[in-house]
């Protein structure tokens, strides 16, 4: 007896609903996308009890022809594709023809629609996939779709619905994305008679951002516009000062469709390289336009995922475009202003600074006298602390460093002033050696322009606060510089350059460094040992659970070589996929942190001046490698407001 049979159409629709209609937000998504495809300029969404009781979507689009109303609820019925070739040229948001029959099979539907301006239309009543009525009705041009009692006939699905607030959150999140991707459509979202979102539909994306994320977020946005042969990119990204604790504020759209793509998300974060603190993410609204033939949207039932045919060109394009915008900004926060983002309190409390006038005068006089006695080259030779910890401060090419193997101090080479950006003048840095990995600090500029990087402010040192912050000033106001973060940035750029050619600096050790790992780590490390050679560390298995380091670059921070290599090994073991650029960056960050001066460490005026000069010579002098700010400014006007000189 035959065991295989064709499923009933009603059961097949319920199964399809499991893919298409996951929750109330799925219904809203499908109906709103249909409204957009119909050319609507105004869409109103009204929901009750998180969408489980009622969902109503009203639009002023082209409507449905009377003879097509019933056919629209047949499975795979669509007006948007006619043959197989159309699948490679999809320009509409919906096209599968599964949404309406899937929704109708698990809910009670009332559809009123009209495609004419004469006020005549059709009204359909459907319950559980069964058509109850199809009659003439008075209706304005457009479509009014009401979905009630979702999942009333599938209690197993209803049981797994979350709380009303959770379901409302999913609906709101989707409606925010739609408003951001279509600022030219007036969109309204109401829940239980409360208006949650309302846009005017005038095409101004910044107004939509303000309506969703607030005016402070809108003020923190930077516009982006770039294009090449295949792609056009426009939208906004936030300054590094405005961050969030998750990626939810990153929205990417392709041809008007909201998508989720890890490659694009990673490209956005790479563009913020070392500008964001750990576990903080920017606000980004980016809209990509490309020919439909190079993107496949038919790879996911809910159409949230797409496949690009030229992703190797797309991701660097997005990364370079964002980085080009960020590199044009002077990223110095001004904390006196109301904080940007979710920082809670809007108040500001100024720390007290105690200045000893007599001592400051004495120090200045002593410093001036000592500076006059120094030649241009000997100015770079500081105390023992400068020799051991500030060694990368002595230039971008030639550094005063200690020979690790012999313990003999190498002579300080004379500085080439053309390699620096001092007192606000932009400097040049040496090119990468042949075969060096990609440098995430240097990007090609998009074709829409290549403006110069804003110069670092010209600063005059005042003093040091609590051995941690340098105090400086210029005609615009007061500046605080975190000395540890500043030295980290200087060291990071130095070590990143050095890791680009590690084989030139590796030296054999008279006494090899011994490292031990667990049995499981040992097996993993044996498979990844070749990666260490790429950064100049020659590691070999010494038997059992022991490894030894035969050689490492001589410019490793003195005294921290073993702990540094151990941390590098821990990172290599924790990564599933390793690439050379990422290993080079991680190693540079580890070295820079260990070699930098710390908080509560007193610096002389000459040492502080040297630190500021080297910071000004950096390619990115505003954040440390971990993304924390280096400089914070207080404008003269802000200070006058604090002291009530202006009201």
TrEMBL record:
Looking at the record, the residues that make up the MutL C-terminal dimerisation domain are 461-603
| Family to which this protein belongs | Belongs to the DNA mismatch repair MutL/HexB family.
Q: Which PROSITE patterns match?
A: DNA_MISMATCH_REPAIR_1
Q: Which GO terms describe its cellular component?
A: mismatch repair complex
**Which Pfam families does UniProt cross-reference here?**
DNA_mis_repair (PF01119), HATPase_c_3 (PF13589), MutL_C (PF08676)
Does the entry feature the keyword Heme, yes or no?
no
The family database entries (SUPFAM superfamilies) matched by this protein are listed as: ATPase domain of HSP90 chaperone/DNA topoisomerase II/histidine kinase, DNA mismatch repair protein MutL, Ribosomal protein S5 domain 2-like
This chain belongs to which protein, by name? Answer: DNA mismatch repair protein MutL
NCBIfam families named among the record's database cross-references: mutl, PRK00095.1-3
Query: Which organism's genome codes for this protein?
Result: Paenibacillus antarcticus
Which keywords does this Swiss-Prot/TrEMBL entry list?
DNA damage, DNA repair
